[in-house]
């Protein structure tokens, strides 16, 4: 079976013929334009204000239209490829415009779908919130109806029971927090406080501290001394004084033996925290401030940690920072 193949030579010949015809036509139009420019006929560009000249202009324009109307239209020949080329160009422009419109519509569709998904998520959240609020309102109404139906004495007993449970829960949480604080003081903070009191580094600068290092003491520059010079440490008198002070304030009936520097520091900071809490709660009877016996690493640490605050005019008085209200002393 034979398949008709396009005759490329004939098509190129038609194209060449069409191009030549267009060039000839352009040449004729240019010649006519040059002839018109060379003639003495003046083509009016603006209407004249003189009626006679205005009438002449109209006659000239009418004569030009009459000649153009009577002239035979200059159309391409039947075998010209120009109509096909023009149609092909129009089709290409239409296809390009359609593709661009499709891409723009696809981008708009994508953005619209994103907006729809976002609005759908907001709607779902609003529905969930509405459902939760409706359930909450229904529970409150049920509780209110139950309260209205209960005996006042029974309601008072239930309220007292709830308050007692809340107090027990808070007491247990406070106990857990205090146990955690004591554990932190005994295992981490006490040795660092003792080191600072003995002339060593500030709390936090040196983490790994043991009893031997504390017993050895520190130099004037705050560096640990050699452990072999423990008995000859220059801080021995100061260390013994601090131990004696805590021994005097220790509860009767405790374990025997002298406490170490670490134990003394732990007792000091724990006692100071208890005194500060008692003063804040009004149990001390002397206001919210606690009178300090002297400068100590425990007091300085609480101030650096923004847990306590010195009195603005007296550095021997200390108080807890009340996070619930501003300090107005």
UniProtKB/TrEMBL annotation:
Its main location: nucleus. Belongs to the CENP-K/MCM22 family. It is found in: Chromosome, Centromere; Nucleus. Residues 141-169 are annotated as: Disordered. Residues 12-39 form a coiled coil. InterPro entries: Centromere_CenpK (IPR020993). This is Centromere protein Cenp-K. It comes from the Eukaryota. Residues 141-151, 158-169 have a biased composition (Basic and acidic residues). Keywords: Centromere, Chromosome, Coiled coil, Nucleus. It comes from Coniosporium apollinis.
């Amino acid at each position: 079976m034979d398949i008709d193949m396009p005759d490329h030579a004939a098509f190129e010949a038609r194209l060449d013929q069409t191009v030549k015809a267009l060039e000839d036509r352009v040449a004729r139009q240019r010649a006519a334009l040059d002839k018109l420019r060379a003639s003495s006929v003046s083509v009016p560009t603006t209407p004249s204000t003189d009626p006679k000249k205005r009438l002449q202009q109209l006659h000239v324009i009418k004569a030009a239209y009459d000649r153009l109307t009577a002239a035979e239209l200059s159309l391409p020949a039947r075998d010209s490829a120009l109509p096909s080329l023009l149609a092909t160009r129009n089709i290409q422009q239409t296809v390009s415009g359609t593709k661009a419109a499709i891409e723009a519509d696809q981008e708009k569709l994508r953005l619209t779908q994103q907006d729809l998904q976002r609005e759908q998520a907001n709607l779902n959240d609003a529905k969930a919130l509405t459902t939760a609020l409706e359930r909450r309102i229904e529970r409150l109404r049920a509780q209110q109806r139950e309260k209205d139906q209960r005996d006042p004495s029974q309601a008072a007993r239930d309220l007292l029971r709830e308050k007692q449970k809340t107090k027990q829960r808070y007491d247990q949480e406070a106990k857990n927090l205090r146990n955690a604080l004591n554990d932190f003081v005994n295992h981490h903070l006490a040795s660092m406080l003792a080191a600072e009191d003995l002339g060593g580094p500030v709390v936090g600068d040196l983490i790994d501290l043991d009893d031997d290092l504390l017993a050895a003491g520190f130099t004037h520059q705050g560096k640990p001394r050699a452990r072999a010079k423990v008995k000859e440490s220059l801080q021995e008198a100061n260390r013994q004084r601090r131990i004696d002070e805590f021994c005097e304030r220790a509860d009767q009936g405790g374990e025997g033996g002298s406490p170490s520097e670490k134990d003394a520091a732990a007792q000091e900071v724990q006692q100071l925290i208890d005194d500060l809490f008692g003063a804040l709660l009004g149990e001390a009877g002397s206001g919210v401030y606690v009178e300090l016996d002297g400068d100590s690493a425990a007091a300085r640490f609480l101030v650096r940690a923004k847990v306590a605050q010195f009195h603005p005019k007296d550095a021997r008085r200390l108080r807890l920072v009340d996070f619930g209200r501003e300090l107005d002393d």
